[in-house]
Amino acid sequence: MFCRFVYPRFCSVAIKVQRINSRKLLSSILYESIFKDLAILLLRVFAGALLIHHGFEKLNDINNFADAFVRPLHFPFPVTLSYIAAVSEIVGSWSLIIGLGTRLGATAILGTMSVAIYHALVTSGFNIYLLELLALYFSSAISIILLGPGRFSADYLVNEIFINNLNPVNSNSIKKTFQNKKLTQKKENSKIIKKQLNLLKFPFSSFLSS
Fold first, then answer.
1. CA–CA separation, 77 vs 17, rounded Å?
2. Cα four-point dihedral sign 81, 83, 85, 88
3. Do both 74 and 135 map to the same domain?
4. How far apart are CA 46 and CA 59, in angstroms?
5. pLDDT digit string (tens) for 149-192?
């Protein structure tokens, strides 16, 4: 009651701020990303570590793999294609784990998973038990291609150490733009704080004068 009569403007501003903060909290819980680089790291490492043994299994018995998976599709050079599939899975998995040439490694895995999904559809139809693992690797590869390697990767270190140092003009200009944005944000925040203080002072001074 005291707040309504003495500080009516302050109460309205406080209620609006509280509503905005609650909306921001709800939106951050629902859809905003948390620890994005850590999530990409986990996706890369788990996808590569779980996929790499499939490539080594192909190399252990390459003729059996060619007879079971490549020849039924009537592709030419089945043994050569089997070696390409095995090497792409091994090299692509190491690429994802280390984070070096991440998008290239994910593209190689995407190619092998595409052929594997095609083989499963041709030979067994829409069998979810055969497709579920292939679809998970397929979606993981596409996600890594779209998201990139993240900061916890060798690609990020190569970009920061070599590429930015080779082109210092662009890096300095980018830093200046970020600094200018921070300064403008600070000025806007200071203006908002001053407005709130003026709202606090005005009703109290009017109450004393009356």
1. 68
2. negative
3. yes
4. 21
5. 999 999 999 998 888 777 655 555 555 666 677 677 777 766 66
Q: Does the residue 105 lie in any domain? A: yes
CA 124 to CA 148: how far, in whole Å?
A: 34
Q: Please tell me whether residues 127 and 189 are part of one structural domain.
A: no
Number of domains in the chain: 2
Q: What is the pLDDT of residues 87-105, one digit of tens each?
A: 999 999 999 999 999 999 9
Domain-located, residue 9: yes
Taking the CB of residue 156, how many other CB atoms lie within 10 A of it? 16
42 and 27 share one domain: no
- 98 and 23 housed in the same domain: no
Encode the chain in three state secondary structure: CHHHHHCHHHHHHHHHHHHHHHHHHHHHHHCCCCCHHHHHHHHHHHHHHHHHHHHHHHHHCHHHHHHHHHHHHCCCCHHHHHHHHHHHHHHHHHHHHHCCCHHHHHHHHHHHHHHHHHHHHHHHCCCHHHHHHHHHHHHHHHHHHHHCCCCCCHHHHHHHHHHHHHCHHHHHHHHHHHHHHHHHHHHHHHHHHHHHHHHHHHHHHHHHHC
* Closest among 49, 72, 44 to 151, alpha carbons compared: 44
Structure tokens at 145: 């291609």
Do 28 and 40 sit in the same domain of this protein?
Answer: no
Question: What φ, ψ does residue 44 adopt, rounded to 5°?
Answer: -65, -50
Backbone angles phi, psi at 2, to 5 degrees: -60, -40
